[in-house]
Amino acid sequence: MSFGLTAVAGLSVGHFTDARRPTGCTVVLAEGGAVCGVDVRGAAPGTRETELLAPINAVEKVHAVLLAGGSAFGLDAAGGVMRWLDERGIGVAVGPKRANGSPVTVPIVPAAILFDLWVGDSQIRPDAAAGYAACEAASREMPAEGNVGAGAGASLGKLFGIAHAMRGGLGTASISVGGITVAALVAVNAMGDVVDPESGTIVAGARTDDGHAFRDTMAAFRRGEWPPSRSASRDEAAGATTLAIVATDALLTKAEATKVAQMAHDGLARTIRPIHTMSDGDVVFALATGASGVCSPTTLIGALAADVLADAVLRAVRAASSLSDPGLPDLLAARDFPPATHNKTRDEP
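The structure assignment produced for this chain is given below.
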């Protein structure tokens, strides 16, 4: 049985990871169409087609959702996803006819990007060919996690500078209950720390000056410690953004899917502190394939979406691996820290 986002019938996931530097993109294909909602809460978003998802707007279903690195340049990758779908006649049928008599179709591909340009050659970023390659790689198998696809160049804990940061990554999780499945996929590239909400321990985040323990960003703020003004130099964190897709096989309207996306943000708030900062462009998409034929309460689906998204955040960080880059301090990963360094936050007893 599949686990993660591909546990939702009607969806497949593909990654493209650029071997030349850590960046890439991740596509979720809904070739049969899926109702989609979105909620954007970060102050620095980079998105495409999100306005189309408003419940008052016309198009009811999307055919793919793309998450990409490369900052705003990465939105180019959506063109490759459109080309892949168009070659297969997948999209919204419009008036004109093709030469063979079939209708012209326009694939609907919302997309969002995260900032990962600080590491490696910033001229290398996902493009249309990368989006097409992600579609070619898509399958119903359990998606790879860690530093792949949109999570290839992800980092976190950057509020005190990149020298104190750690690796982020991509993770996925799912739950099946009451005849429906709810799942999440997330690329964690946050300014804040990642915390296990059950234990209250920091899993990954800003490190102390010696690099061997967690600073605890929120505790530092409460002590009156604020990072010095960051310059535009390469060794400072220029941006972040956590991107997520939650999905279900239940039946939802666009308005209901939008509410699920809103509720799912709670999963980010439980695990990332602080979240939705001025340097984050956090976005959550919600997909509903309706494949189960079950009409479940929106509140139930939204609550489960928040839970599985929190699980996916933890899986993303725990699957990440360390990174060495010339001219930058080594970026350690959660797996590099012994349990003793995973201190509880001040908010926990």
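Interim note for the steering committee: The two ends are 38 Å apart (CA to CA). The chain is about 20% helix and 25% strand.
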